[in-house]
Amino acid sequence: xxxxxYGFLYTFVVAAKHLxxxxxxxxxxxxxxxxxxxxxxxxxxxxxALFVRYHRRLELTEAGARLALxxxxxxxxxxxxxxxxxxxxxxxxVTLSVMxxxxxxxxxxxxxxFQQAYPDLQLRIQASDREVDFKRDRxxxxxxxxHLHNRHDYAVPxxxxxxxxxxxxxxxxxxxxxxxxxxxxxRLLNDDSEWRFHSPYAEWDAWLAQAGVxxxxxxxxxxFNRGDLAVQAALxxxxxxxxxxxxxxxxxxQGHLVRPFDITLDQGNAYLFVCPKPYQEREPVQxxxxxxxxxxxxxxxxxxCPQLL
Length: 309
Known about the structure:
five-stranded mixed beta sheet, 11 strands, D-Maltodextrin-Binding Protein, domain 2
């Protein structure tokens, strides 16, 4: 049997995908005649037909369908391997997946110091609330909420995730919030991010129960699908939000937000740095982790996870 010309085989895979020599020619930037010639050449080498040719359409033969399936998988695996090797060759690049709220409220304001510390390291940031699939999404590392951790990846806790009511100073003064029970007469702002809890009001319900408040229904307030939006609404004087440790500490220190009450809900959650175990020894990954650890300590020593202190 003659050796298979792999260039012709790839042309066949593309033509089989489209069931059209014309569309295959467009994708491969060849003429329709060149596609047809390569397919006939491949059929001659193989000794069997790949397509049934009708006047205005193509149809794969049984043999052609089997070859298209297996060849397509082969080329897909080859492309994935090349992509992995290319990324491995660019060892100064790290792709980080991070939740949008954490990215906008905590990470973005601090990237300048990262660039100063590691000017040769290129950070690619992908903001997403969905569960991380490192292989599918070609992600190197991620910052996730602890309840999403699958326990199979390398993980380092960064910051405790504690929550407490926050509002603007003007809102506090205008509504005279002196007791948690006063929340019954103001608008509550809900963070109902899909990744977090089954009920969009679970955290408010837990905080109110801890504070001994009765008769307050968080469902009558405003809801947002991202925590940073709830914080922004609080900054704009739209109501009282439950602030998360990484999302509000800067604004509290700067006086843009205030805590009307000292009661804090701590359910043992945290934000984690995670990556596949084979990646943990890569120098750029360790550089990013070390920077994150230092920034978390500087941000809130009391809330940096004990493992880092």
